[in-house]
């Protein structure tokens, strides 16, 4: 088989890398070890026939707002975005819920006394999100085109989340921010833990938090279709354990973790570079429960019944405690739980009145126990009677995630912990983060800048870097 470039892995980053190369006239072959493409964007019937569950990624504010994905004609290849009535709700014990809508003004109105503060913190970034995204969704070390805007984001992003939360006086606003900040999967009193939450909120107020019609697999199906239309090839069921398993190609891009690449490269990688890549560290794990629920989740707070995403964890302090415990290796008694109700935006995922509910908690890295009751108890805290409506259930623990996708080491679905060091110099200390030290070989996974998320920017930027060596 003759090809100019080979890409290992068919997740969004691998496919984005392949398309970027194909756009420049290269012949490209993508190799996928699984029988199905998609990495973290697969969708399956896990519980009840006809009920579609996203296997990992589910809600896509970074996807719909991705500078690269937005440049592609993915709608022509079947990708349709759908938005729920309410993007995000965060229930509290008094029966109310904080609500984030695409409109920042309507969100601010709902936050009462904190409305002006919310608008002041996130409004400027949301209004200029399309200029901000190309600056943030890439290597930290770069020459910015919008230095003032990037600096404004940096002043917020560098803060510990608990410091930024002090700008809000009400429990509702603090909790709403906490749930977004907790996506960074680190203790919320650490520097830079405000970064992901700030970016998610800005993206939400600019583009919303949509889902892909038919499941997240529709994103990679569209990418693969586009690639094939450009002459690219995708081969599944191909295990790559060493460079010897690859066809001859001038360029090789790896949608893998740094440690997996070091294993594949073997003695072709300089020892010092191999040691550097093997220092990559992984973080807390996901413990996921997919439910088939007749009639939907009986949330006490009515806005949660209309929200595509529900963050379950109570107050800022409760979420911060749970995240700190998981990072210390302790299973939280009340874990932070992310709940997806994608069917509210995309009814094609349901079978009659039986709906898919997607939920996962942050648990310690490589946790091997059973956290099912803890997760369900936490949801029932705000939705009493949930268990009576469950007609199907599927559990994916950390070991299952690692088996499902080798990039999810120990159940870490971010493919690397977001410490300050690994945010700033991922995957190793260098100004050339996609190069590996092996001629013609580049990393393009979410372990490279800008990190996790279905945006394709890691793959796109890695491919642009590889083209410089062509």
How would you characterize the overall build of this protein?
The protein is of the alpha/beta class and 470 residues long. The protein has a domain at 5-42 and 56-80 and 212-280 and 407-469: 3-Layer(bba) Sandwich (FAD/NAD(P)-binding domain). The protein is built from 18 helices and 16 strands. The protein has helices at residues 12-23, 61-64, 104-110, 115-127, 129-136, 147-157, 161-165, 171-181, 195-207, 217-229, 258-265, 271-278, 316-328, 372-382, 386-389, 398-404, 420-424, 457-469; strands at 5-8, 28-32, 43-44, 53-54, 81-82, 86-91, 97-100, 211-212, 233-236, 251-254, 285-294, 307-312, 337-340, 354-363, 390-396, 441-443. The strands form four sheets. The chain has a seven-stranded mixed β-sheet, sandwiched between helices. A five-stranded parallel β-sheet has the order 9-2-1-10-16, covered by helices on one side. A two-stranded antiparallel ribbon has the order 3-4. Strand 3 (43-44) and strand 4 (53-54) form a beta hairpin. Helix 3 (104-110) runs antiparallel to helix 4 (115-127), helix 4 (115-127) crosses helix 9 and helix 8 (171-181) runs parallel beside helix 13. The longest helix is centred in the N-terminal third of the chain and has 13 residues, at 115-127. The chain starts with a strand and ends with a helix. The mean pLDDT is 95.
């Amino acid at each position: 088989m003759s090809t100019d470039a080979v890409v290992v892995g068919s997740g969004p980053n691998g496919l984005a890398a392949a398309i970027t190369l194909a756009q420049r006239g290269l012949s490209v072959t993508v190799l996928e070890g699984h029988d199905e493409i998609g990495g973290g964007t697969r969708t399956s019937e896990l519980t009840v026939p006809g009920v579609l569950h996203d296997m990992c990624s589910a809600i896509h504010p970074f996807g719909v707002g991705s500078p690269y994905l937005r440049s592609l004609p993915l709608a022509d290849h079947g990708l349709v975005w759908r938005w729920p009535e309410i993007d995000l709700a965060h229930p509290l014990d008094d029966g109310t819920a904080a609500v984030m809508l695409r409109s920042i003004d309507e969100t601010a109105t709902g936050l009462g006394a904190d409305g002006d503060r919310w608008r002041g913190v996130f409004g400027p970034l949301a209004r200029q999100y399309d200029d901000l995204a190309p600056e943030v969704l890439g290597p930290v070390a770069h020459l910015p085109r919008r230095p003032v805007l990037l600096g404004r984001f940096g002043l917020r992003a560098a803060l510990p989340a608990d410091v930024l939360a002090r700008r809000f006086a009400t429990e509702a606003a603090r909790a709403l921010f906490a749930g977004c900040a907790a996506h960074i999967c680190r203790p919320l009193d650490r520097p830079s833990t405000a970064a992901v939450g700030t970016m998610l909120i800005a993206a939400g107020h600019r583009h919303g938090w949509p889902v892909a019609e038919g499941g997240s697999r529709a994103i990679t199906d569209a990418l693969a279709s586009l690639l094939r239309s450009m002459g690219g090839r995708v081969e599944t069921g191909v295990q790559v354990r060493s460079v010897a398993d690859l066809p001859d190609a001038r360029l090789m891009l790896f949608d893998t973790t740094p440690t997996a690449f070091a294993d594949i490269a073997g003695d072709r990688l300089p020892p010092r570079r191999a040691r550097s890549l093997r220092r990559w560290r992984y973080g807390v794990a996901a413990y996921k429960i997919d439910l088939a629920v007749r009639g939907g989740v009986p949330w006490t707070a009515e806005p949660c019944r209309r929200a595509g995403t529900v963050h379950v964890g109570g107050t800022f302090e409760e979420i911060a405690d749970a995240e700190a415990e998981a990072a210390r290796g302790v299973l939280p008694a009340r874990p932070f739980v992310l709940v997806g109700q994608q069917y509210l935006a995309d009814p094609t995922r349901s079978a009659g009145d039986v709906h898919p509910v997607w939920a996962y908690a942050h648990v310690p890295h490589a946790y091997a126990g059973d956290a099912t009751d803890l997760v369900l108890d936490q949801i029932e805290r705000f939705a009493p009677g949930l268990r009576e409506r469950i007609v199907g259930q599927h559990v994916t623990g950390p070991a299952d995630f690692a088996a499902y996708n080798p990039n999810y080491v120990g159940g870490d679905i971010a493919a690397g912990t977001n410490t300050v060091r690994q945010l700033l110099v991922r995957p190793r200390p260098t100004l050339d983060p996609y190069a590996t030290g092996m001629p013609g070989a580049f990393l393009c996974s979410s372990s490279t800048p800008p990190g996790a998320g279905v945006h394709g920017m890691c793959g796109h930027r890695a491919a642009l870097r590889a083209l410089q060596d062509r």
